[in-house]
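CORE FACILITY INTAKE
Project code: CF-77B
Contact: R.S. (postdoc)
Sample description: multi-component assembly, three entities in total
Requested service: structural model of the whole complex
Turnaround: standard
Below are the sequence entries exactly as provided by the requester. Do not edit them.
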Amino acid sequence: MATMQSLDIRRRSASTEVPPQVRQSAIQVAKLIDVSKCIGCKACQAACLEWNDLKAPIGYTDGTYNNPTDLTPTSWTVMRFTEYEKGDDLEWLIRKDGCMHCDDPGCLKACPAPGAIVQYTNGIVDFVSENCIGCGYCVKGCPFNVPRISKVDRKAYKCTLCVDRVSVGQAPACAKACPTQAIYFGSKEDMIVHAEHRIADLKSRGFEKAGLYNPPGVGGTHVMYVLNHADKPSLYSGLPDDPRISPMVGLWKGVMKPISLAAIAFAGVFGFLHYITKGPNEVSDTDERKADDLAKGKGA
Amino acid sequence: MAVTRRQFMKVSAAGLAASSVGALGFTGAGEALAAGVRPFKLERATETRNACPYCAVACGVLIYTMGDRSKNARSEIIHIEGDPDHPVNRGTLCPRGAAALDFVRSPNRLKYPMVRKPGSDKFERISWDAAMDRIAKLMKEDRDKNFVAKNRDGVTVNRWLTTGFFGTSSQSNEAGYLTYKLVRATGILGLEDQARI
Amino acid sequence: MTNSWNDIKNTDLVLVMGGNAAEAHPCGFKWVVEAKANNGAKLIVVDPRFTRTAAVADVYAPIRPGTDIAFLSGVMRYLLGNNKIHQEYTKAYTNASYLVKPGFKFEDGLFSGFDEGRKAYVDRSGWDYEFDEQGMAKVDETLQDPRCVINLLKAHVERYTPEMVERICGTPKDKFLKICEMIGTTSTSDRTMTSMYALGWTQHTTGAQNIRSMAMIQLLLGNMGMPGGGVNALRGHSNVQGITDLALLSTSTPGYLVLPTEKETTYADYMKSRAFKPIRPGQTSFWQNYGKFFVSQQKSFFGAAATKDNDWAYDYLPKFDVGYDTLKIVDMMAAGQMNGLFCQGLNLMMAAPNKTKVQAGLSKLKWLVVIDPLETETARFWENHGEFNNVDPKAIQTEVIVLPTTTFAEDEGSATNSSRVIMWHWKAAEGPGEVRSDMEIMSDLFSRLKTAYAKDGGAFPDPILNLTWNYSNPHNPDAAEVLKEINGYAVEDVPDPADPSKLLLRAGQLLPNFGVMRDDGKTSGGCWIYTGVYTEAGNMSMRRDASDPTGKGVFPNWGFAWPANRRVLYNRASADPNGKPWSERKKYVWWNGSRWTGPDVPDYAPTVAPDKAVGPFIMNPEGTARLFARAAMPDGPFPEHYEPMDAYIANPLHPKVTTNPVVRVFAADANAFGKPDKFPIVATSYRLTEHFHYWTKNAHANAVLQPELFVEMGERLAAAKGVKDGDWVEVTSQRGSIKAKACVTKRLRPIMVDGKPCDVLGVPIHYGFIGLTRKAHPMNVLTPPVGDASVQTPEYKAFLVDVKKTTPPAQSPAVA
């Protein structure tokens, strides 16, 4: 029996353990976002906020339709609107932004906290808050600039592909809500077939460069786009043309990881002692910036 | 590479999260899974079929309430999503319908009858009985004083023009029908709703 | 909607004009996306703004707000001139061949019969057919007579050349012609176009005529009564269709009956103009049953007190002199002619045009009752909110009583969607605090009034004392019981008209359909078109069979569609005069040799054979649909372009009659209209997909998705005013001014009107001084207090403004 909701773990951050491999039943899932059907209504955003019990702050308008203006720890998906003039014609390119659930997830590879990021055998990449240490490496590791660190609890947040829904056989909240089937959820195989039909339809309507966005630089993604202009993904509010995992992650995995893993043992003891004697850390901006520089591999 | 204390914490900061050295990537993946996936929040919720209150697509919605409707448990609405059986919306909802829970649970819901007295700068809470008595009295006073039984030509017109009624096109047919009956029986002609504004 | 949401999937071409379906009705719009993806359909959007509907359109064309009739008349000219009409359909099913009286004329912007002093077409006798001695309309089957409707129509639209359309509408000629060509492809028997419109057509002084123009196009194309065709009003509130059906409208009674005027002094007088005799041989003229529906309704309202002897309690109904629509009520309030007002779930301060006038009107009331689940600007109109509502509470003597109500989730009952489908919803939970349902509130109010009138007497107590309220629980009736009353039942035993020795209905039996209604008092029914919704077989609105046996998007056992569970109106017209489907591809209802059949309930007598030549438009005494409206519209039997009341240019067609000549303008509003010298920008109001009217500003997630008022303007206008995205601007009309943030966009390009660039500015309606969204000036400060000549829908969609850069609004004082 094949299943989409198999929740065996395929990969786990900062772990060397080999997960169970006997069960081979998991179907690779995918969410297909068809920008040619998207009306930018933000039903997906509303459904995401409601399902995940997120109370995003009420902001201000900046004179565009982008609201909230960016992904945040409480807004895991946002619509990004681009007005694209092509000769005399105008296109309003609207893209639902959020975690792409890379098959080769940069966030997971960059994460130093054991089990804070997991990838299930169905392809979903999820953050496990209990294990997250808020270091921000996942942000650096993500080629799509998706994870956000909460100022409230210093943990990283992003779209979970509604793993809690998928695990009981339900589609993600955004996919279910989408009024125009611009978001479609199913096996990755089926989504690719569906995309082919959509691309043929778009080509018949004059979009010769219509195509599927499933970038190989990250091993393909479990969130894919049908784009009218697949030759220029960056037209869509800077969707990376050829995303790849940052070289920083290579550094982490190559040189830093053994050092850090050893250091973690010390940090655990030191951190605990520090906390009970001095209270929580007050982090200076300088410390933050230096840490960031270090994380980027610049040294200090 | 000079590493400050803070940088050290940040780079290798698994410290406080991992409870022991044994946790450095060696705990069972199954345990991590159990801890990581949030439980499906509707598992034992009660499901009620309803319709989205906003536009006239009138999408089917499923309202989930906590509790099983037993006498001593108050049903609280915890979630609303699309009804997949409904032929028009087939489970989908727009950004308004998808957030209908935030209308039901809005902090701006009115909860009690209130009155604002002439010239006052505030509302005061009153009882339903007092409110309804007052409204009936105000209506009767105005109607009895200004009801027009006959027009200038002596034709029976039986109308009351000094009070108006804006009804809502968000109420049910049944509530609307009762509203219509009552308002027309009083002779009010100024009866409107959102249909043409 | 003549058709249904699901039926849209059958279409070949969607024209969204006068609406913004993707944003206002996303889940209905899904069927457009389906038609595109699975039926090869194309989508055309004609709108002043490049909307989110336009974002997924195959063709988008801009249009200046308020010029839709010019565009649509130009389409008609193209179709007629290029033989892109469905000849056989037009000839058989419309009044194309009817001869019009010689008295009918159109000259210099005016139809015959205009009275300059009264600003009305006082003499509309010429707006009719020629009749023979038997009272039958004369026709010329050859369509050669110049007085044939079709020839008069050709002459009427001849002026709307593509050049004239471009001059008036600002729509580039090549775009316009491309759209005409696409529309023309649906004149064949195997292709249909659907028209989807909403307030973008109704909210004009020519609103009803905008829609007529499209109905005429669809008739010329043979697209009425066809799957994937029709003229589809995408209605606003979840039950605005039901509440319209149930007549919460000043001159209506349920089921599209009309309240008596004061000229109709008796029931006999009232019925004199409602005989609806056929005016072509053998036609159905279904409104001949008017008396049955009216008498049954009076029985439903007044029970035993409605008798033949008292004209079925005819005098219990108020008789009107003029319409008391929203604009009229507000005008009376502002003139100090009203003392009391109820606002039940209607936020008048936001919803009526000219907020300043509404504010003044509310301040002159003695009392105001607000019945609502939410805080509203209306309930707090007396409260100072800084520059957003700068009033002095001490100076306002209105007593305001607020009653909290349940929401949809906290009550049960039926509602009717835009497709006319009546569907039940069930209660999920109790509401917060002490909220009560509208049914309970109305029942309580009725009980107190009845008691007071019974005890103390008062002005004409009879209708109140005799109003039926005999529900099992009169203080909080069961919704199902009320729906039964609306459906109707036999008051006493009803004999079978075919065989009086047999009983058709037993006393108390629920009516199976409106065909059994009677005008002798033996049947009761509150709203004839709803009859069939609750029969002896049960509550049809509760049906939830989601099967679509033919795959045509007809779900016959899901809820109940009025009338008679019919999903596509006029569907007899989907077959040719011989009863054969016009095409296999669009097969819908046809004659099988002994009866009409198909996936839907035929809109026709089920066993009347095609050779009887009974027309498919059974409600009209002609049996055909009207390209020429006779005297049904106050502003002409053909649509004509008139400028909005805030006129941007002199009407190029007839500069002496620039605006609709029969628009009602109140004396108090004589100076309410702006001129382009002072207000050189054309503005239009609109809705955002993230919000619903003025409610969702109270819902957290929606406030997150669109938190603050903005106005949209094109780059040219922004550059001229030195405005960037997010800058504060002041928008001023003749009525007042508001501040808002600027949204500078490529989606609003200047439109070339009469050879000169015209800037368009868009203002969303949703924001006010109450809510979780940022406090804002209600935008109805700007809009003109004038309505459509036919039905008084306010002209929110086209008005003149000026705009300049400004400073942010001052912080409003904290509210206690």
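Facility notes:
- The mean pLDDT of chain C is 97.
- The CA atoms of residues 99 and 148 of chain C lie 5 Å apart.
Invoice: internal transfer
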